Amino acid sequence: MDDIADLNLSAVAGAIADPARARMLCSLLDGHARTATELSALADISASAASAHFTRLRDQGLVEMLVQGRHRYYRLANGRVAAALEALLVVADRPRPTFRPSTPSTLRYARTCYDHCAGELAVKLHDAILALGWIEADGKDYRLTEAGAEGFKALGLNLEDLYVRRRRLAFPCMDWSQRTPHLGGALGALLLELMVRRGWVTKELDSRALRLTPKGAATLHKRFGFEARMPVDTHAGRRASA
Question: Which residue has the higher pLDDT, 6 or 89?
């Protein structure tokens, strides 16, 4: 048994040891998923070389690939991998890397993703709903819990509408600016409809951007316990003076 453990340790250590693979793994430590193109650029290697590295990392259970439409994202396989990398970084005396998205701030904060809410606001809402136990993992999807049914009804959702829409009930939809999940599926769509109907957010003309209202910020804080605030639009003054 010890010999098998030793061999497994050697294989995992060998997968981490390559400088390009180590850079890719460390870039995923912040919890944000990244595309193969982004990871190959970070590691300063070609796309073909990156493909071989991804295979090695996946074979050793260090990363997993998420397929969403035509996009493929990579992230660390689990918390144990993150903890091991954190420990190695302490030994190597290197700081933890940070994620700096380049998406415009208003779109990064709140926007539509198909028919549900995306962006920083949506990720916070997803995390709060998950923490409250209103939804729970069911394979690659979420199932609605009894507490969730009561909570969403109290918000004003008509849950019967969930089951007349012939689609997935709820699932973690990877957010392309935050690189962590927001809530997708019929439940996410119903929630956005409610937020618009109640005046918590408004849709901007000719844009997928959503604008959080003071009423919405107060309601989300009261119901879910997180602070919500629209970022300052640094381009507004330029547009006005143009």
Answer: 89
* Parent domain of 44: 2-92
Number of domains in the chain: 2
- Cα(191)–Cα(122) distance, rounded to whole angstroms? 10
**CA–CA gap between residue 57 and residue 34 (Å, rounded):** 14
Where is the domain boundary, 37, 62, 92? 92
Distance CA 210, CA 201 (A): 6
Other CB atoms within a 10 A radius of the CB of residue 25 amount to 25
pLDDT band at 238 (very low <50, low <70, confident <90, very high): very low
Q: What's 67's domain CATH number?
A: 1.10.10.10
Q: Which of 174, 180, 176, 194 is nearest to 32 (CA)?
A: 180
Q: In angstroms, rounded to a whole number, what is the distance separating the alpha carbons of residues 224 and 100?
A: 26
**pLDDT tens string 64-93:** 998 877 888 898 998 888 878 877 887 777
Q: What is the pTM of this model?
A: 0.69
